[in-house]
């Protein structure tokens, strides 16, 4: 029997924005591209926090890069530590307010404005369900 070394899982800190419309009735979600990790899943926008970048700056940058809109980053909602098969993540989630721009699917396949109750209709990555639960508890 040979011992095969299992490489350590990559770890990423991810800034995540729960982007509310101006009336705070609907949230923006986007669908991951059809290739890559978690292909085709719906998610809240965000991405990897760069070295020496704070969470709010990351969320603003990622939302601008992925959806071409400007947001104001608000209160912290929840931090989730989750392990996927090949990756460990810390999702640092903040409420955001859509300020300007028309959302565009730049780094995703589609985007939708949905209510919190609508979120059950979309396949989300496992860690995202804790975000949905936190949203329900805060409403």
Automatic annotation (TrEMBL):
InterPro entries on file: Mutator_MutT, MutT-like, MutY_C, NUDIX_hydrolase-like_dom_sf, NUDIX_hydrolase_dom
This protein's UniProt keywords: DNA damage, DNA repair, DNA replication, Hydrolase, Magnesium, Metal-binding, Mutator protein
Catalytic activity: 8-oxo-dGTP + H2O = 8-oxo-dGMP + diphosphate + H(+)
Keyword Chloroplast: no
Origin: domain of life: Bacteria
CDD domains cross-referenced by the UniProt entry: NUDIX_MutT_NudA_like
Protein biosynthesis is among the record's keywords: no
Root EC class: hydrolase
Segments forming domain Nudix hydrolase: 10-137
EC number of this enzyme: 3.6.1.55
Needed cofactors: Mg(2+)
Family statement: Belongs to the Nudix hydrolase family.
Entry protein name: 8-oxo-dGTP diphosphatase
Provenance organism: Pseudanabaena yagii GIHE-NHR1
Gene this protein is translated from: mutT
């Amino acid at each position: 029997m040979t011992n095969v070394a299992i490489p350590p899982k990559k770890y990423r800190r991810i800034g995540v924005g729960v982007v509310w419309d101006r009336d705070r009735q609907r949230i923006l979600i986007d669908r991951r591209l059809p290739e890559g990790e978690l292909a085709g899943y719906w998610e809240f926008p965000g991405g990897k926090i760069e070295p020496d970048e704070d969470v709010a700056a990351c969320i603003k940058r990622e939302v601008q890069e992925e959806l071409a809109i400007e947001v104001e980053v608000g209160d912290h909602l929840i931090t989730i530590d989750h392990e996927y098969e090949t990756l460990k993540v810390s999702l640092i989630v903040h409420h955001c307010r859509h300020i300007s721009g028309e959302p565009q699917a730049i780094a995703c396949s589609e985007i939708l404005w949905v209510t919190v109750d609508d979120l059950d209709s979309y396949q989300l990555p496992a860690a995202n369900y804790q975000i949905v639960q936190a949203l329900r508890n805060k409403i």
